[in-house]
């Protein structure tokens, strides 16, 4: 099991619950819907009880030697409120201002807590809008909040994804500000290919019922499809002035219909490929539709956990 001094790129990631670090994971990504707990109008104050609860969860995870990523999840007003994009955009900056105030680097060191600005930009946040937000968000954290987010060791580490739902396809269009470097920035991509396999039967995806029965048998051609996507990432990162830590921030298979052996094979394949390439990864997710932990039985789903962390599963 990795310890808190493990470089983040070697971390295994999971949601917080006692037993997560014992199961071999060494970090957690906590998706947070700030927009649902914030005044909808100025000054967009985040509800204090909610902020305190987030802080409590972050503290517990750090106590368990888990590195923590906090993000902005499901900020649908930003994606879909066409009339008021610039106002919603300003709200995102206000969330991160308040988060920066609550989590200073003096208490939450740059190796312990990572800020992921926005989960899966899409719809109104296209490539252009996202690139412009990245400039403003990094400026907010590293410059405007330099007193709380920079220290002698460095700066708050931020995680930056890609437009069009976080997939690999828009990585070549991501423009990073000059201040971004491998010490302060992690690039994150989400990986759900082939979508018809990973999301078969998913209630929130239109048409997904028609995909039930799609198999993933690890054939050479199926593996090649995935390798081609991963190679896009490697190629991007090999260009001059890059060499960022790459994080597969979400990957997983919706469990209700996919045969467990296919789910395990796909998960193991992505995980091993990520590790081979030196990427960190966060499995999506803990205990819901894709979960590796079954909250009803109170046990890990061994086959799936075995796909993620083969070396630790036998000790459970
Ligand atoms: C994204 C969505 C989440 C969904 C997951 C898998 O993280 O925000 O709601 O469950 O992808 O589709």
What does this protein structure show overall?
The protein is an alpha/beta fold and 316 residues long. It has a single domain, classed as TIM Barrel (Alpha-Beta Barrel), CATH 3.20.20. It has helices spanning 48-63, 76-80, 85-102, 127-144, 146-149, 195-198, 220-238, 260-276, 302-308, 310-313; strands at 12-13, 27-30, 67-71, 113-116, 150-151, 154-155, 158-160, 185-191, 245-251, 280-282, 293-294, 299-300. The strands form 3 sheets. An 8-stranded parallel β-sheet has the order 1-10-9-8-7-4-3-2, covered by helices on one side. The chain has a two-stranded antiparallel ribbon with strand order 5-6. A two-stranded antiparallel ribbon has the order 11-12. Helix 1 links the parallel strand 2 and strand 3 (67-71). Mean pLDDT is 92; it is low at 1-18. Alpha-D-glucopyranose binds at residues 74, 119-120, 250, 284. Residues 74, 119-120, 250, 284 line the site of alpha-D-glucopyranose.
Question: What's the layout of helices and strands?
Answer:
Blueprint: E1 12-13, E2 27-30, H1 48-63, E3 67-71, H2 76-80, H3 85-102, E4 113-116, H4 127-144, H5 146-149, E5 150-151, E6 154-155, E7 158-160, E8 185-191, H6 195-198, H7 220-238, E9 245-251, H8 260-276, E10 280-282, E11 293-294, E12 299-300, H9 302-308, H10 310-313
Parallel strand pairs: 1-10, 2-3, 3-4, 4-7, 7-8, 8-9, 9-10
Antiparallel strand pairs: 5-6, 11-12
Bound molecules: alpha-D-glucopyranose.
Residues 74, 119-120, 250, 284 line the site of alpha-D-glucopyranose (GLC).
């Amino acid at each position: 099991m990795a310890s808190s001094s493990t470089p983040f790129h070697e971390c295994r990631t999971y949601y917080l619950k006692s037993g997560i670090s014992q199961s071999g994971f060494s970090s957690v990504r906590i998706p947070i819907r700030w927009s649902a707990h914030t005044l909808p109008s100025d000054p967009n104050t985040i509800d204090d009880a909610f902020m305190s609860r987030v802080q409590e969860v972050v503290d517990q995870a750090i106590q368990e030697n888990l590195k923590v990523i906090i993000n902005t999840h499901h900020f649908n007003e930003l994606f879909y409120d066409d009339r008021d994009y610039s106002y919603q955009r300003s709200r995102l900056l206000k969330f991160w201002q308040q988060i920066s105030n609550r989590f200073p680097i003096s208490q939450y060191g740059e190796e312990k807590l990572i800020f992921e600005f926005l989960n899966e930009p899409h719809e109104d946040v296209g490539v252009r809008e996202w690139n412009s937000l990245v400039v403003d968000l990094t400026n907010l954290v590293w410059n405007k909040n330099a007193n709380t987010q920079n220290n002698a060791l460095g700066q708050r580490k931020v995680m930056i994804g890609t437009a069009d739902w976080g997939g690999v396809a828009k990585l070549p269009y991501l423009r990073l500000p000059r201040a971004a470097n491998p010490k302060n920035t992690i690039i994150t991509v989400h990986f759900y290919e082939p979508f018809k396999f990973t999301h078969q039967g998913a209630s929130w995806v239109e048409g997904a019922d028609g995909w039930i029965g799609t198999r993933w048998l690890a054939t050479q051609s199926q593996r090649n499809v995935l390798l081609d996507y991963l190679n896009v990432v490697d190629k991007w990162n090999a260009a001059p002035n890059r060499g960022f830590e790459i994080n597969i921030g979400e990957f997983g298979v919706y469990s209700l219909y996919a045969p467990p052996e296919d789910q395990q094979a796909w998960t193991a394949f992505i995980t091993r490929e990520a590790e081979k390439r030196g990427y960190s990864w966060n499995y999506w997710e803990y205990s819901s539709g894709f979960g590796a932990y079954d909250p009803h039985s109170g046990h890990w789903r061994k086959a799936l956990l075995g796909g993620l962390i083969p070396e630790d599963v036998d000790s459970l």
